[in-house]
């Protein structure tokens, strides 16, 4: 029987398919590995950037107190986005900084040092108004063109009854000084028992609106429409008179808080607005809006005419402590503020941004802006600030000028007469319209038996071309004969007492170079006549050269509360300075 052979063997599997499969697997793994490596490399790059290899950087923002609060919240939100700029991790810190104080610091030292009392040195400054930035024009303190972050119209916060009366009377910015400095002026708008307008003008925290109101009043007074007001207009007699009237009346208000927010609170809490220490305070629409129900007894009154706005311009500073990283951070933060979410937050805080306006309330009606006042130029803003800080006090002054023969004596390049007339003309030209001025001259027998002559009766500078009449009279004067000081001074003083102007200083300005040589009137008669005065009219004296009558003239000045200034010559600035001091 035959046997089958048990010689079975495994047949080999073809190597080709195995190699192919392995190759595919290797390729797939390689591709996956490549992508993983790429992702890991990318992540490592991102992590390296996020690691801020150059360290941390803080963008310090100095913002006016009226906008600093909302900006602080937005700065925290920006910081939470973990911005990286030039390999620096950037955070933003917002500090309150009074606009006027920052302006003063940067004006005095545009390149530093920074005033540490105002907080950390900022790279970005956001003042209340464009006037603050304009005052730094030409100093090199600002890098580029500032851009408004948010704006708010400047208004006058008043009790609702007063607001209705002023609105119905169509009061404009130019009317405010007269309402402030006149007598019982609110009766003219139907408010009997209110007296005159009492407009408090704060200069402390958050008081940028005061600056804007001064600009609006000045622009309206100078009739410049929507502006901007320039330096010559700001220095004009009409404008300086208006600003001085506001300043002097505001200073006379007792108990008005220095900060605008505190003044708003005090105004809203008045139980009897008609008899309150003050009736009104400049504020931004946003400040009143932010006061909420605390302002429910007030209303934002907008005088007619171009409306000033607190435009909150964001200015990147060009200072030694501001490097490229901080400049870029400032620009990026400002871009962040312009995004819709941040814009809405600013609007919710009461600001206007672009065409977005907060909802109206009973005390902030949020009307559309018809005309916007361009901020005053830098020199004009400086002039207004100086006038407000050191206001000219309008006086009622009769100038009594000696034109005796000795006034024709040579003195330098001219005569005593020509030098005196020249210096006097310059000072009269600078007097505010609110002043009352007249010109008397004296010698002997100038008007029949009288030793004096009235060239221009004393009266308001803005009536009857008084400035031109005074100038013409001065230029026509010629030296006469003797000096009759005592008799002329008695007559001028009696006339000033009879025409006494209430509410301002009244004075005689005596200008003389020689002793009284009219024996018909004695020193005792002069002293006695002055004693009988029923109103306080002081006698100021400018005594020229070596005047042997100076002791008597000093006694007269002392008796009436006046001042004697002795000048050695009419040549040079001394006599002009004396006139400036005594006339203003």
Describe the protein's topology:
Layout: H1 15-50, E1 56-63, H2 65-80, E2 84-85, E3 88-96, H3 99-108, E4 124-126, H4 130-134, E5 142-148, E6 152-159, H5 160-168, H6 176-181, H7 208-221, H8 231-234, H9 237-251, H10 260-268, E7 281-284, H11 285-291, E8 298-301, E9 309-310, E10 313-317, H12 324-337, H13 340-348, H14 378-389, E11 396-402, E12 410-411, E13 414-415, H15 416-429, E14 436-447, E15 450-460, H16 466-475, H17 485-498, E16 506-512, H18 523-531, E17 537-544, H19 550-560, E18 564-567, H20 573-583
Can you walk me through this structure?
The structure is a single chain. With 584 residues, this protein is α/β, with parallel strands linked by helices. It has helices at residues 15-50, 65-80, 99-108, 130-134, 160-168, 176-181, 208-221, 231-234, 237-251, 260-268, 285-291, 324-337, 340-348, 378-389, 416-429, 466-475, 485-498, 523-531, 550-560, 573-583; strands spanning 56-63, 84-85, 88-96, 124-126, 142-148, 152-159, 281-284, 298-301, 309-310, 313-317, 396-402, 410-411, 414-415, 436-447, 450-460, 506-512, 537-544, 564-567. The chain is elongated and about 95 Å long. Residues 1-15 and 21-49 have low confidence and may be disordered.
Question: End-to-end span in angstroms?
Answer: 154 Å
- Extract low-pLDDT stretches: 1-15, 21-49
User: Helical proportion?
Assistant: 40-55%
| Number of strand segments | 18
How big is the Rg?
Answer: 38 Å
Give the percentage of residues in beta strands: 15-25%
Strand order of the largest sheet: 2-3-1-4-10-5
Average pLDDT number: 90
Number of domains: 3
Principal-axes shape call: elongated
CATH superfamily of the largest domain: von Willebrand factor, type A domain
Named CATH architecture of the largest domain? 3-Layer(aba) Sandwich
The biggest sheet amounts to: 6 strands, mixed
Structural class: alpha/beta
- Number of H- or I-type helical stretches: 20
CATH topology of the largest domain: Rossmann fold
Q: What is the CATH class designation of the largest domain? A: Alpha Beta
Keywords: Membrane, Transmembrane, Transmembrane helix
InterPro entries: VWF_A, vWFA_dom_sf
Protein name: VWA domain-containing protein
Organism: Rhodococcus xishaensis
